[in-house]
Amino acid sequence: MKTNKCKYCGAETTNALAFFPMTLIIKNYEEQKLLYNNDWERMEKEMSPEEFDALMFYDQLLNTIEKGCVCNECSEKDSELYNKYYDTSDEFELMYCDKCIQMTNHLNGVCQKCAKLKDDLEEPDLPF
Ligand SMILES: [Zn+2]
Ligand SMILES: [Zn+2]
């Protein structure tokens, strides 16, 4: 079986080529961004230039997607950190709803248009 090198750690992997950010999520940098609430202006003012440059560079790499292979170990580690720092559970996902017969916002797999209609039916006479 053909193997490729993991773009992050260099380990041999049989995983297929796909698109990945140029860097894995790095805990220390994410903690720094959290500390400053992702306020880049404040970071620039308060961090040392070296620290700030390193963080900017990391963020740039994280937002640059390139083709490569990633081993299972790195992929697991990355999704763990992704869930920790980029929890998307509150974000809507545009999906096709069979009932609405159109693309609608879904939250955790639930069509928000249907959910709203259901709410309206259950509480028809709101006092306000
Ligand atoms: Zn790897
Ligand atoms: Zn729907």
Write structural notes for this entry.
The protein is of the alpha+beta class and 128 residues long. It folds into 2 domains: 4-85, no CATH class; 93-122, no CATH class. 43% of the residues lie in helices and 20% in strands. It contains 5 helices and 7 strands; from the N terminus they run βββαααβαβββα. Strand 1 and strand 2 form a beta hairpin. The N and C termini lie far apart (66 Å).
Q: Could you give a short account of the major beta sheet? A: 3 strands, antiparallel
| Average pLDDT reading | 88
Helix % is 40-55%
What Rg is obtained from the alpha carbons, in whole angstroms?
21 Å
Distance between the termini: 66 Å
Low-confidence stretches: none
Cofactors and ligands present? zinc ion
Portion in strands: 15-25%
Which H/E pattern describes the elements?
EEEHHHEHEEEH
Count, helices: 5
Query: What is the β-strand count?
Result: 7
Strand order of the largest sheet: 5-6-7
Overall shape: it is flat
Keywords, separated by commas or semicolons:
single chain; about 130 residues; alpha+beta; 2 domains; three-stranded antiparallel sheet; two-stranded antiparallel sheet; 5 helices; 7 strands; flat; binds zinc ion
